[in-house]
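Memo to structure team: turn this sequence into structure tokens by end of day. - J.P.
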Amino acid sequence: MNLVYMARPVYGGWVTMTAHLSLTYDYPLFKITKRTEKNKRDYGYGVKYQNTKIDDLLKLDNLVITAIDKNYYEYIDKFPDSTILIIHDPTEVKNKEFVEKIRRFKIYTIRETVYKFLKEKFNIESTLKKHPFYQYPLSNINNSPYKCLSISRIDFDKHTEIILRANSLIDEDINKIRIYGAENRLYVHHKLSSLGLKEDFEKYWMKKFPKTLPLTDSNDKNLLNNCEYIVDMSIIKGDGGGTQYTFLEGIHNDCILILHKEWVCQGDLFKDKHNCYVVGYTDKPEEEIANIINSPNKKMNKMILKNSKKILDDHIKKDFF
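Reply from structure team:
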């Protein structure tokens, strides 16, 4: 397969999924540009990509568009009917004209909620697959000291404000949730400022981490080896229930997941106190998070981690195409 990344973002799920797909199956990766380059460039996570003119790209067989945004819609009509297009979430199909143009492609989805959304709203059949996960070797040297982390984007749908509120209730500084990831500046400067949380954000935000596997910080410290909890408060309209790469990264590195009920209830994969902790049963999920971290149940944590490993098994080296 020849993978094509057709979007502007350089961080987030689209980028991570493309990298894991390329690494797992050793598929080449391309981006569309005005001229074809012989040398490959760094994509991140140990993956290289080649800048290629659209005319040269279309000479290749088995094209897979791993992600696309509006900046690349102009190329859609040029791709053959045999093209595979991966749809990650409902936000990608807001444009009606775009939806009509992609009906002729082979559509792949990677969460059941998105599969159902396409079928029910647009009568588009898709092939449902698990997120591909590259089982990279773990390192136990030069570890970060932090016990609790958030490693998703800082954005409205990630509800970073809940995590910041939880920090004020967590007893020990070593257990405060450090926040890594690319920030949506509108969210930070408007939402967090209006909630009086911007100062707290600046205190606990550790900036973006380099795109490496294993995940490291800017000082090359291993982020997840010493981590006990990954906190992810994602709530996305029309999506949820399944996995995200923050979840899979956490499980692979023996971290316990703390997830929001509004994500978990969209499916039947995650179960509270079975393969993760679930918060959001009250109107103060930050208190629920703090209670889990302040009063750890070692026996339950061991059981949760064991059960969560079964989820990861379904994502490692499975046939995707």
